[in-house]
Design brief:
By secondary structure, the chain is α+β, with helices and mostly antiparallel strands. It has 3 helices and 6 strands. The protein has one domain: Roll (Nuclear Transport Factor 2, Chain: A). Strands 2-1-6-5-4-3 form a 6-stranded mixed β-sheet, covered by helices on one side.
Length: 120
């Protein structure tokens, strides 16, 4: 992404970028669409700010074997993506990812899933 004019601003396009970065295993293209006070809260941890957010994603992306998007629902500021996530050789998990977008930037991500397959 060369400049801000090429950055996605709609919640749906930003969610598509988020999951494309996940598929590529590279969270860095997300930095320009992260709000300075972006937060992440999920079953296995929380982050505050872009640096922690990207570090957390890098770890999750590296451990991911597959993440198939099954459904995406969007409104003017929110996107919920339902996916089937596989970590290493563990059983797939159904994951709900809620991304909140303000002024073209991700301000919050909330993720919920049953982590038991990861822990076994």
């Amino acid at each position: 992404m060369a400049d801000d004019h090429e950055l996605p601003t709609s919640p749906t396009l930003i969610a598509e970028l988020y999951f494309a970065c996940w598929s590529a295993g590279d969270p860095l293209p997300l930095r320009p669409v992260l709000a300075p006070d972006v937060t992440f809260d999920g079953a296995l941890g929380s982050t505050r700010g872009p640096d922690e957010f990207l570090d957390g994603l890098a770890g999750m992306f590296a451990a991911t074997t597959a993440n198939e998007v099954l459904l995406r629902l969007a409104s003017e500021q929110d996107v919920v993506t339902w996916s089937e996530l596989t970590i290493a050789d563990k059983a797939p998990m159904q994951v709900a990812n809620w991304t909140h977008v303000k002024a073209g930037k991700i301000s919050a991500v909330r993720v919920t899933f049953d982590p038991r397959p990861m822990l076994s």
